Sequence to fold (604 residues):
Amino acid sequence: MKRVIELLKENDLLRVIDDEVDIDLEIAHIAYVEVKKDDSKALLFTNVVSKRLNKKFDIPVLMNVFGSFKATELIFGKKPQDVAEFIEELLHLKPPTGFAKKIEMFAKLFELRKVFPKRSSKRGECQEITYKENEVNLFDLPILKTWPEDGGAFITMGQVYTQSLDGTKQNLGMYRLQVYDKNRLGMHWQIHKDSAHFFHEYKKADQKMPVSIAIGGDPLYIWCGQAPMPNGMFELLLYGLIKEENPLLVKSLTNPIYIPKDVDIVIEGWVDPKKLEIEGPFGDHTGYYTLKEPYPVMDVSCITHKKEPVYQATVVGKPPLEDKYMGWATERIFLPLLKTTAPDLIDYKMPENGVFHNLILAKMNVMYPGHAKQFMHAFWGVGQMSFVKHAIFVGNDAPELENYDELSDYILDRISVENIIISEGVCDALDHSSPTYAYGGKLGVDCTNDSVNFPQKNIISDKELFEKVSKISKDITEIKQYKTYTKTPIAILKIKKTKPVYEFYKELEAIKEHTKLLVFVDDEKNSIDNPYMLIWRVANNIDAKRDIYLIEEFIGINATNKNKLDGYDREWPGDTDCDKDIIKNLIDKKLIDADKIFLEKFQI
Ligand SMILES: Cc1cc2nc3c(=O)[nH]c(=O)nc-3n(C[C@H](O)[C@H](O)[C@H](O)COP(=O)(O)O)c2cc1C
Fold:
């Protein structure tokens, strides 16, 4: 970690903050604003206190390590694209012809020996200082509370190491962990994740599950922890492949789990599968709180650390945040693997304001009828890709996927009710819009066809359109049109939801000659002038089966917060909003540098 701090410093990608800052909200709010900037830097807080605990910590806190494309490349030591190319090569190894090619292939395969983790019987530097039994006190670590409504303090960049009941499989997952008291942590491994599968093995066998949580060390460990590796494959293999050096592991002191020897802090313990406890709420990476749910609990048996550890953390919430850059690397590196199930896929993109699993844009070569639909089903059926809620496929003649403006013109010129499929399946456990937990609607839009040849709509100004809709309903408070020159002009409507949104949509058939796609958002907390945050809201708030209305070529999307009027019976979570007084105070102290326009742009 110290080496990475130096590397970031040398590249002018680190800001050291020596002012006194609190673990409750202050550090998280400073980091949250910083990482949204175009030139954001990692932040090292050296003077960390807790007024709540009446404590001053001697461990500094490091945030936003993956705070830019450049920082991410520095951590990888190469471009993610280079890793992708190497994986592609490995996947397509051909028998070599000629002596020179044989030597080349042998050298390549010989290099692969560095992929495998190596176990040492010695102690690691992460075990220089140890606290066992009664000495264990999680409150001695500067663990942050990141959002006002959070159920407590959470470890947000913990590498969670687990193993299968028979010890043959290891796993590294990045899951948040809630501090309950001085020696107990909530384990937020969601239902679909590998550690949850291991947990069920231990539960069935009625045995306690060993878990070790590492913090810090090489930040690439934490990136590997969030990588969607196939079930049963240890994520540290990916570390070895990227770094071209064997990850070096040492055994935890009080359980059988091996952890990298150079991490900063290790929390060891055991999970009793008989015990579950309420976890959350927690301001999550969807930009909403995840609500209280029962999760397993770890009894901490030991804490070890380096002589001078650094505590690494992140804050998740509304985009863009650190996960934008982590997600970008994941997206690039996993493209060759995705192509093994979807061979004619050219590229894909999961925009951060679509909260990754809420929206995927994919470009492909179409070889036969229904090819795009085949890929949609393939995605929805495999690993963590199956969490994707909305998939839009375009042909090989489409603009670059990052060129959102031109790409959206291309898509809108091709949308037809005929090309939309609505299905259902597995959802991310965090999805709040689905009618049931972790299961809901899926939307697939096949835009690989030619442009549709429907007549152009009769476009009128926003003001004229608003006058027309006001005559239909007084509960429509604002309207703004986008992309009116395409075959699918969009009208964003802010509404006060006094009745089911479907009824608004039906009444608005009267304006069908002027527009094709109506998007309904709540009057509160949305700006119709902010497409970046509107996409975030829409992709989060809809369940395709319930919220998309398709009558002939007039489409409605209900992106309002749901309640009984929509037939929604679950509890709808709130947005992750910063504490306004704390933001103001941090601006006054010059710890945050942001004006009103910036704060509004990202709905801070
Ligand atoms: C910042 C961040 C926080 C995350 N928090 C959680 C979490 O609390 N629980 C969870 O199940 N997944 C979480 N994830 C996603 C997992 O890390 C990811 O799905 C990973 O592939 C899981 O590994 P596994 O399949 O080995 O379980 C998080 C990812 C990121 C980038």
Q: What stands out?
A: The chain has three domains: 2-77+116-313, 334-447, 462-566.
